[in-house]
Amino acid sequence: MNVEKIRVPGLVLVLAGAIAMAGCGGGKSDPAAEAPPQTKVENEPDLNLVQVEHAEQFPLVAAEAHAAASRLVVTGAVTPDVSRTVPVVSLASGRVVEINAQLGDFVKKGQLLMRIRSADVSGAFSDYRKAVADETLAETQMERAKGLYDKGAISLNDLQVAQDAENKAKVDVETSLEHLRLLGGSPDHVSGVVDVVAPTSGVIIEQNVTAAAGVKSLDNSPNLFTIADLSSVWILCDVYENDLGSVHVGETAEIRLNAYPGKVLTGRINNIGPVLDPAIRTAKVRITVENPGLMKVGMFVSATFHSQKKETHAVVPASAILHLHDSDWVYVPDGGKQFRRVQVVAGAVLPNNLQEIVKGIEPGQKVVSNALVLQSTVEQ
Questions:
Q1: CB under 8 Å to 234, separation ≥6 — which residues?
Q2: Distance of alpha carbon 2 from the chain centroid
Q3: What domains are there in the chain, each with its CATH number?
Q4: Radius of gyration of the chain (CA)
Q5: pLDDT in tens, 327-376
Q6: Considering the entire predicted model, what is its pTM?
Q7: CA 160 – CA 156 distance, rounded (Å)
Q8: Residues pairing with 205 in the sheet
Q9: SS3 helix, strand, coil % of the chain, rounded to 5?
Protein backbone atom coordinates (compact mmCIF):
# COMPACT_ATOMS: atom_id res chain seq x y z
CA MET A 1 0.00 0.00 0.00
CA ASN A 2 2.80 2.36 0.79
CA VAL A 3 4.61 1.62 -2.52
CA GLU A 4 1.54 2.49 -4.61
CA LYS A 5 1.08 5.81 -2.84
CA ILE A 6 4.67 6.84 -3.67
CA ARG A 7 4.64 5.76 -7.36
CA VAL A 8 1.44 7.53 -8.34
CA PRO A 9 2.66 11.07 -7.52
CA GLY A 10 5.93 10.39 -9.30
CA LEU A 11 4.13 9.38 -12.48
CA VAL A 12 2.08 12.59 -12.32
CA LEU A 13 5.22 14.70 -12.05
CA VAL A 14 6.79 12.99 -15.06
CA LEU A 15 3.71 13.58 -17.20
CA ALA A 16 3.50 17.29 -16.13
CA GLY A 17 7.15 17.84 -17.02
CA ALA A 18 6.69 16.25 -20.41
CA ILE A 19 3.73 18.47 -21.18
CA ALA A 20 5.68 21.59 -20.13
CA MET A 21 8.66 20.60 -22.34
CA ALA A 22 6.33 20.01 -25.24
CA GLY A 23 4.84 23.47 -24.79
CA CYS A 24 8.22 25.24 -24.67
CA GLY A 25 9.87 23.37 -27.43
CA GLY A 26 6.93 23.18 -29.81
CA GLY A 27 6.66 24.63 -33.34
CA LYS A 28 6.92 28.34 -34.25
CA SER A 29 3.85 30.65 -33.78
CA ASP A 30 2.07 32.21 -36.80
CA PRO A 31 2.60 36.07 -36.86
CA ALA A 32 -0.40 36.56 -39.15
CA ALA A 33 -2.66 34.86 -36.69
CA GLU A 34 -1.40 37.01 -33.81
CA ALA A 35 -1.71 40.38 -35.73
CA PRO A 36 -4.80 42.60 -35.07
CA PRO A 37 -7.54 42.53 -37.71
CA GLN A 38 -7.07 44.87 -40.62
CA THR A 39 -8.91 48.23 -40.25
CA LYS A 40 -11.43 48.99 -42.92
CA VAL A 41 -11.71 52.75 -43.76
CA GLU A 42 -15.12 53.96 -44.80
CA ASN A 43 -15.43 57.44 -46.32
CA GLU A 44 -18.46 59.46 -45.26
CA PRO A 45 -20.45 60.96 -48.12
CA ASP A 46 -20.12 64.71 -48.81
CA LEU A 47 -23.45 66.15 -47.70
CA ASN A 48 -22.92 69.28 -49.76
CA LEU A 49 -22.48 67.30 -52.99
CA VAL A 50 -25.71 66.20 -54.72
CA GLN A 51 -26.24 64.20 -57.90
CA VAL A 52 -29.33 64.34 -60.11
CA GLU A 53 -30.52 62.39 -63.12
CA HIS A 54 -31.42 65.36 -65.31
CA ALA A 55 -29.12 68.28 -64.64
CA GLU A 56 -30.64 70.21 -67.54
CA GLN A 57 -33.81 70.69 -65.49
CA PHE A 58 -31.98 73.14 -63.23
CA PRO A 59 -30.95 76.19 -65.30
CA LEU A 60 -27.85 78.12 -64.35
CA VAL A 61 -27.27 81.86 -64.15
CA ALA A 62 -24.01 83.77 -63.99
CA ALA A 63 -23.47 86.06 -60.99
CA GLU A 64 -23.19 89.71 -62.01
CA ALA A 65 -20.82 92.31 -60.59
CA HIS A 66 -22.25 95.10 -58.47
CA ALA A 67 -20.21 98.02 -57.08
CA ALA A 68 -21.57 99.63 -53.92
CA ALA A 69 -20.34 101.20 -50.73
CA SER A 70 -19.48 98.63 -48.12
CA ARG A 71 -21.86 98.32 -45.22
CA LEU A 72 -21.38 97.53 -41.57
CA VAL A 73 -24.39 96.43 -39.52
CA VAL A 74 -24.14 96.44 -35.72
CA THR A 75 -26.60 96.25 -32.87
CA GLY A 76 -27.28 98.94 -30.30
CA ALA A 77 -29.77 100.28 -27.77
CA VAL A 78 -31.67 103.52 -27.24
CA THR A 79 -30.46 105.64 -24.32
CA PRO A 80 -31.34 109.17 -23.18
CA ASP A 81 -29.22 112.09 -24.28
CA VAL A 82 -27.21 112.98 -21.18
CA SER A 83 -27.28 116.67 -22.06
CA ARG A 84 -31.10 116.51 -22.06
CA THR A 85 -31.37 114.61 -18.76
CA VAL A 86 -32.03 116.58 -15.55
CA PRO A 87 -32.07 115.16 -12.00
CA VAL A 88 -34.72 116.30 -9.51
CA VAL A 89 -33.26 116.87 -6.04
CA SER A 90 -34.29 118.54 -2.81
CA LEU A 91 -31.92 120.58 -0.66
CA ALA A 92 -34.34 120.23 2.25
CA SER A 93 -34.54 116.96 4.15
CA GLY A 94 -37.78 115.66 5.63
CA ARG A 95 -40.66 113.28 4.98
CA VAL A 96 -42.74 112.99 1.82
CA VAL A 97 -46.38 113.97 2.36
CA GLU A 98 -47.60 113.98 -1.26
CA ILE A 99 -46.49 112.59 -4.65
CA ASN A 100 -48.11 113.85 -7.85
CA ALA A 101 -45.97 112.14 -10.54
CA GLN A 102 -44.77 108.62 -11.29
CA LEU A 103 -42.25 106.80 -13.42
CA GLY A 104 -43.07 107.16 -17.12
CA ASP A 105 -45.20 110.31 -16.78
CA PHE A 106 -44.66 113.29 -19.05
CA VAL A 107 -44.31 116.46 -16.99
CA LYS A 108 -43.98 120.13 -17.87
CA LYS A 109 -41.52 122.61 -16.44
CA GLY A 110 -42.78 123.97 -13.09
CA GLN A 111 -45.28 121.14 -12.57
CA LEU A 112 -45.65 120.01 -8.93
CA LEU A 113 -44.01 116.62 -8.42
CA MET A 114 -44.12 116.14 -4.65
CA ARG A 115 -44.33 117.87 -1.27
CA ILE A 116 -41.96 117.40 1.67
CA ARG A 117 -42.51 118.41 5.30
CA SER A 118 -39.13 119.68 6.37
CA ALA A 119 -37.67 120.93 9.62
CA ASP A 120 -34.97 122.64 7.57
CA VAL A 121 -37.55 124.92 5.96
CA SER A 122 -39.18 125.69 9.32
CA GLY A 123 -35.77 126.65 10.72
CA ALA A 124 -35.06 128.82 7.68
CA PHE A 125 -38.36 130.68 8.19
CA SER A 126 -37.46 131.27 11.81
CA ASP A 127 -34.03 132.65 10.91
CA TYR A 128 -35.54 134.91 8.24
CA ARG A 129 -38.20 136.39 10.51
CA LYS A 130 -35.64 137.02 13.28
CA ALA A 131 -33.35 138.76 10.76
CA VAL A 132 -36.24 140.99 9.63
CA ALA A 133 -36.99 141.93 13.26
CA ASP A 134 -33.32 142.70 13.92
CA GLU A 135 -33.19 144.88 10.81
CA THR A 136 -36.26 146.85 11.94
CA LEU A 137 -34.67 147.46 15.34
CA ALA A 138 -31.32 148.45 13.80
CA GLU A 139 -33.02 150.86 11.43
CA THR A 140 -34.92 152.52 14.33
CA GLN A 141 -31.75 152.84 16.38
CA MET A 142 -29.97 154.34 13.38
CA GLU A 143 -32.66 157.01 12.96
CA ARG A 144 -32.47 157.82 16.69
CA ALA A 145 -28.68 158.04 16.62
CA LYS A 146 -28.77 160.35 13.64
CA GLY A 147 -31.12 162.72 15.46
CA LEU A 148 -28.96 162.74 18.57
CA TYR A 149 -25.83 163.33 16.53
CA ASP A 150 -27.43 166.30 14.77
CA LYS A 151 -28.12 167.82 18.20
CA GLY A 152 -24.61 167.04 19.42
CA ALA A 153 -25.81 164.54 22.03
CA ILE A 154 -23.62 161.66 20.79
CA SER A 155 -20.27 161.43 19.11
CA LEU A 156 -19.56 160.51 15.49
CA ASN A 157 -18.26 157.14 16.64
CA ASP A 158 -21.63 156.26 18.18
CA LEU A 159 -23.34 157.21 14.92
CA GLN A 160 -20.99 154.99 12.92
CA VAL A 161 -21.62 152.05 15.27
CA ALA A 162 -25.37 152.41 14.73
CA GLN A 163 -24.84 152.60 10.95
CA ASP A 164 -22.72 149.44 11.04
CA ALA A 165 -25.37 147.57 13.04
CA GLU A 166 -28.01 148.49 10.48
CA ASN A 167 -25.83 147.34 7.55
CA LYS A 168 -25.15 144.00 9.22
CA ALA A 169 -28.85 143.53 9.92
CA LYS A 170 -29.61 144.02 6.21
CA VAL A 171 -26.98 141.43 5.28
CA ASP A 172 -28.55 138.94 7.70
CA VAL A 173 -31.97 139.49 6.11
CA GLU A 174 -30.62 138.95 2.58
CA THR A 175 -28.68 135.82 3.62
CA SER A 176 -31.58 134.22 5.48
CA LEU A 177 -33.95 135.00 2.60
CA GLU A 178 -31.60 133.38 0.08
CA HIS A 179 -31.27 130.32 2.30
CA LEU A 180 -35.06 130.05 2.57
CA ARG A 181 -35.51 130.25 -1.18
CA LEU A 182 -32.70 127.75 -1.75
CA LEU A 183 -34.57 125.19 0.33
CA GLY A 184 -37.72 125.79 -1.70
CA GLY A 185 -39.60 128.06 0.70
CA SER A 186 -41.15 131.46 0.04
CA PRO A 187 -41.25 134.48 2.40
CA ASP A 188 -44.86 135.12 1.33
CA HIS A 189 -46.05 131.64 2.35
CA VAL A 190 -45.04 130.62 5.85
CA SER A 191 -45.11 126.82 5.96
CA GLY A 192 -42.91 123.87 6.86
CA VAL A 193 -43.94 122.07 3.65
CA VAL A 194 -41.76 122.58 0.58
CA ASP A 195 -42.96 122.00 -3.00
CA VAL A 196 -40.66 120.13 -5.39
CA VAL A 197 -41.40 121.06 -9.01
CA ALA A 198 -40.10 119.82 -12.36
CA PRO A 199 -37.02 121.80 -13.46
CA THR A 200 -37.68 120.99 -17.13
CA SER A 201 -40.22 119.33 -19.41
CA GLY A 202 -39.80 115.68 -20.32
CA VAL A 203 -40.46 112.09 -19.30
CA ILE A 204 -39.69 110.71 -15.85
CA ILE A 205 -37.26 107.86 -16.54
CA GLU A 206 -36.21 107.25 -12.94
CA GLN A 207 -38.01 107.40 -9.58
CA ASN A 208 -36.36 106.72 -6.23
CA VAL A 209 -38.99 108.02 -3.80
CA THR A 210 -42.36 106.81 -2.54
CA ALA A 211 -45.12 108.22 -0.35
CA ALA A 212 -44.18 108.77 3.32
CA ALA A 213 -40.52 108.07 2.53
CA GLY A 214 -37.73 109.99 4.18
CA VAL A 215 -35.77 112.44 2.02
CA LYS A 216 -32.19 113.34 2.77
CA SER A 217 -30.27 116.35 1.57
CA LEU A 218 -27.41 116.08 -0.93
CA ASP A 219 -25.35 113.61 1.13
CA ASN A 220 -24.85 111.07 -1.64
CA SER A 221 -28.55 110.13 -1.69
CA PRO A 222 -30.07 109.12 -5.07
CA ASN A 223 -32.07 111.56 -7.17
CA LEU A 224 -35.76 111.79 -6.30
CA PHE A 225 -36.65 111.75 -10.00
CA THR A 226 -34.79 111.94 -13.29
CA ILE A 227 -36.45 113.76 -16.18
CA ALA A 228 -35.27 113.28 -19.77
CA ASP A 229 -36.20 115.13 -22.93
CA LEU A 230 -36.65 112.25 -25.38
CA SER A 231 -37.24 114.37 -28.48
CA SER A 232 -33.64 113.53 -29.34
CA VAL A 233 -31.96 110.33 -28.12
CA TRP A 234 -28.66 108.49 -28.34
CA ILE A 235 -28.00 105.12 -29.94
CA LEU A 236 -25.04 103.35 -28.31
CA CYS A 237 -23.53 100.62 -30.50
CA ASP A 238 -20.71 98.16 -29.93
CA VAL A 239 -18.31 98.12 -32.90
CA TYR A 240 -15.50 95.57 -33.02
CA GLU A 241 -11.93 96.77 -33.20
CA ASN A 242 -11.42 95.41 -36.73
CA ASP A 243 -14.44 97.38 -38.02
CA LEU A 244 -13.62 100.78 -36.52
CA GLY A 245 -11.98 101.88 -39.78
CA SER A 246 -15.42 101.91 -41.41
CA VAL A 247 -16.91 104.33 -38.86
CA HIS A 248 -16.17 108.08 -38.80
CA VAL A 249 -17.48 110.97 -36.73
CA GLY A 250 -19.88 113.15 -38.70
CA GLU A 251 -21.13 110.41 -41.04
CA THR A 252 -24.74 109.28 -41.08
CA ALA A 253 -26.14 105.89 -40.12
CA GLU A 254 -29.41 104.12 -40.81
CA ILE A 255 -31.32 103.07 -37.70
CA ARG A 256 -33.85 100.23 -37.81
CA LEU A 257 -36.00 99.39 -34.81
CA ASN A 258 -36.66 95.77 -33.97
CA ALA A 259 -40.18 96.76 -32.93
CA TYR A 260 -40.85 98.53 -36.26
CA PRO A 261 -38.92 96.63 -38.98
CA GLY A 262 -40.21 98.79 -41.83
CA LYS A 263 -39.25 102.10 -40.21
CA VAL A 264 -35.84 103.53 -41.13
CA LEU A 265 -34.44 106.55 -39.25
CA THR A 266 -31.30 108.54 -39.94
CA GLY A 267 -28.80 109.53 -37.28
CA ARG A 268 -25.38 111.13 -37.16
CA ILE A 269 -22.27 109.72 -35.50
CA ASN A 270 -21.00 112.25 -32.95
CA ASN A 271 -18.60 110.19 -30.86
CA ILE A 272 -16.41 107.08 -31.04
CA GLY A 273 -15.30 105.83 -27.65
CA PRO A 274 -11.56 106.22 -27.01
CA VAL A 275 -11.42 103.09 -24.80
CA LEU A 276 -12.04 99.51 -25.94
CA ASP A 277 -13.86 96.95 -23.85
CA PRO A 278 -11.01 94.57 -22.91
CA ALA A 279 -13.33 91.56 -22.75
CA ILE A 280 -14.97 91.71 -26.19
CA ARG A 281 -12.66 94.21 -27.95
CA THR A 282 -15.37 96.68 -28.93
CA ALA A 283 -15.72 100.46 -28.76
CA LYS A 284 -18.88 102.41 -28.02
CA VAL A 285 -20.12 104.42 -30.99
CA ARG A 286 -22.69 107.12 -30.21
CA ILE A 287 -25.32 108.19 -32.72
CA THR A 288 -27.73 111.10 -32.22
CA VAL A 289 -31.22 110.54 -33.66
CA GLU A 290 -34.32 112.73 -33.68
CA ASN A 291 -37.07 110.73 -32.01
CA PRO A 292 -40.40 110.73 -33.90
CA GLY A 293 -42.06 109.31 -30.80
CA LEU A 294 -41.50 105.63 -31.58
CA MET A 295 -38.19 105.16 -29.79
CA LYS A 296 -38.34 104.02 -26.17
CA VAL A 297 -35.41 104.00 -23.79
CA GLY A 298 -33.83 100.53 -23.80
CA MET A 299 -35.12 99.49 -27.24
CA PHE A 300 -32.82 97.29 -29.34
CA VAL A 301 -31.92 98.62 -32.78
CA SER A 302 -29.61 97.83 -35.66
CA ALA A 303 -27.37 100.53 -37.09
CA THR A 304 -26.02 100.40 -40.64
CA PHE A 305 -22.86 102.36 -41.47
CA HIS A 306 -22.04 103.07 -45.12
CA SER A 307 -18.37 103.44 -46.00
CA GLN A 308 -17.18 106.01 -48.54
CA LYS A 309 -15.15 103.31 -50.30
CA LYS A 310 -17.00 101.16 -52.86
CA GLU A 311 -16.55 97.40 -53.12
CA THR A 312 -17.54 94.97 -55.88
CA HIS A 313 -19.64 91.95 -54.97
CA ALA A 314 -21.56 89.26 -56.81
CA VAL A 315 -25.28 89.66 -57.45
CA VAL A 316 -27.63 86.74 -58.11
CA PRO A 317 -31.40 86.30 -58.30
CA ALA A 318 -32.96 86.10 -54.85
CA SER A 319 -34.34 82.65 -55.76
CA ALA A 320 -30.77 81.33 -56.14
CA ILE A 321 -30.17 81.72 -52.40
CA LEU A 322 -31.32 78.93 -50.10
CA HIS A 323 -31.96 79.80 -46.45
CA LEU A 324 -31.18 76.68 -44.44
CA HIS A 325 -30.12 76.17 -40.81
CA ASP A 326 -29.77 79.92 -40.18
CA SER A 327 -27.30 80.17 -43.08
CA ASP A 328 -27.43 81.13 -46.75
CA TRP A 329 -26.41 78.70 -49.51
CA VAL A 330 -26.18 78.53 -53.31
CA TYR A 331 -25.73 75.56 -55.66
CA VAL A 332 -22.88 75.63 -58.17
CA PRO A 333 -22.19 73.02 -60.92
CA ASP A 334 -19.53 70.46 -59.99
CA GLY A 335 -19.14 68.58 -63.27
CA GLY A 336 -21.45 66.10 -64.97
CA LYS A 337 -24.72 65.71 -63.15
CA GLN A 338 -23.43 66.96 -59.83
CA PHE A 339 -24.00 70.23 -57.93
CA ARG A 340 -22.18 71.47 -54.86
CA ARG A 341 -23.87 73.46 -52.10
CA VAL A 342 -21.73 76.47 -51.12
CA GLN A 343 -22.31 78.61 -48.03
CA VAL A 344 -22.43 82.36 -48.72
CA VAL A 345 -23.02 85.61 -46.86
CA ALA A 346 -26.02 87.41 -48.33
CA GLY A 347 -26.05 91.19 -48.47
CA ALA A 348 -28.58 93.84 -49.42
CA VAL A 349 -31.72 93.13 -51.41
CA LEU A 350 -31.59 94.98 -54.74
CA PRO A 351 -34.30 95.94 -57.23
CA ASN A 352 -35.57 93.43 -59.83
CA ASN A 353 -35.57 90.61 -57.28
CA LEU A 354 -31.78 90.51 -57.01
CA GLN A 355 -29.64 90.07 -53.92
CA GLU A 356 -26.03 90.85 -53.17
CA ILE A 357 -23.55 88.15 -52.13
CA VAL A 358 -20.90 89.63 -49.87
CA LYS A 359 -18.81 86.47 -49.47
CA GLY A 360 -18.80 82.95 -50.92
CA ILE A 361 -18.82 83.35 -54.73
CA GLU A 362 -17.26 85.73 -57.21
CA PRO A 363 -18.83 87.70 -60.11
CA GLY A 364 -19.13 85.53 -63.23
CA GLN A 365 -19.48 82.28 -61.33
CA LYS A 366 -22.54 80.23 -62.30
CA VAL A 367 -25.17 79.14 -59.81
CA VAL A 368 -28.51 77.32 -59.99
CA SER A 369 -31.18 79.95 -60.57
CA ASN A 370 -33.69 78.29 -58.21
CA ALA A 371 -31.98 76.65 -55.26
CA LEU A 372 -35.20 75.71 -53.49
CA VAL A 373 -36.39 73.53 -56.37
CA LEU A 374 -33.08 71.63 -56.44
CA GLN A 375 -33.12 71.19 -52.66
CA SER A 376 -36.67 69.82 -52.80
CA THR A 377 -35.68 67.36 -55.53
CA VAL A 378 -32.75 66.08 -53.48
CA GLU A 379 -34.87 65.56 -50.35
CA GLN A 380 -37.43 63.43 -52.20
A1: 78, 79, 80, 81, 82, 286, 287, 288, 289
A2: 103
A3: 69-79+229-379 (2.40.30.170), 85-118+199-228 (2.40.50.100), 119-191 (1.10.287)
A4: 45
A5: 999 999 998 889 999 999 998 888 899 999 988 999 999 999 999 998 88
A6: 0.64
A7: 6
A8: none
A9: 30, 40, 35
